[in-house]
Design brief:
The chain has 206 residues and is mainly alpha-helical. The protein contains eight helices and two strands, in the order H-H-E-H-H-H-H-H-H-E. A two-stranded parallel sheet has the order 1-2. The mean pLDDT is 88.
Length: 206
């Protein structure tokens, strides 16, 4: 299962990040623990321009090279358009995990290996959305594009569930709370992490 657009995707550029080997080593220690079932949340703090994003990118690239089973995805906060979209980094994470990688890959912001691993994650992520995160469909993850890219790779029951939801959209639930959405995001990530180790990066957290 390899999409044609990956044939023109770039390989990851060689890492030239220097002078942060101690921090990289510490992050690998946390990653090793997470891959053994001890999930971790790590904050990288510092003033603007100190290289936080570069550190995250370098570590992610090295981690993908070091672990052939690691799936990585990222999302960025945005504080430059009014109050911003508080869900934006989670929308980006779920988009990547559900296979929305073609535009980023062709633009060069996602290398071939990371894109391929995310593409292979798509069927499991789509099934998890149906089973664990139905309220995330068309709120965090646009439903029609999801079905268009994943239909040929899904069990018939999952594909039919998506088609039925498009044919008969559920009524808006005014009681749906933020806590419920985040619980469904958590359940979905747990579903995927049980199948492959996940490295998720939220950049520019405000």
């Amino acid at each position: 299962m390899r999409p044609a657009f990956l044939d023109s995707a770039p390989d990851a550029p060689p890492s030239i990040f220097v002078a942060r080997e101690q921090e990289i080593a510490l992050l690998f220690t946390h990653l090793a623990a997470a891959c053994q079932g001890q999930g971790r949340i790590v904050f990288i703090a510092g003033e603007a321009g100190q290289g936080k994003t570069a550190l995250i990118n370098s570590f992610t690239q090295r981690a993908v090279t070091a672990r052939g089973d690691l799936v990585t995805a990222g999302g960025a906060c945005n504080a430059y358009t009014g109050s911003g979209d508080p869900y934006l980094p989670f929308r980006e994470l779920l988009a990547l995990l559900s296979g929305d990688v073609e535009a980023r890959t062709l633009a060069g912001s996602l290398d071939r290996e990371r894109a391929l691993r995310l593409w292979h994650t798509m069927p499991s992520a789509t099934q998890a959305l149906v089973e664990e995160g139905a309220d995330l469909l068309d709120t965090f993850v646009p439903l029609r594009p999801l079905l268009a890219r994943s239909a040929d790779h899904l069990p018939s029951s999952v594909r039919q569930a998506l088609e039925s939801r498009i044919a008969q959209p559920p009524a808006f639930d005014p009681t749906l709370q933020q806590a419920s959405l985040f619980e469904q995001v958590t359940n979905l990530l747990g579903y995927l992490a049980a199948r492959s180790p996940l490295l998720l990066a939220l950049d520019d957290l405000q």
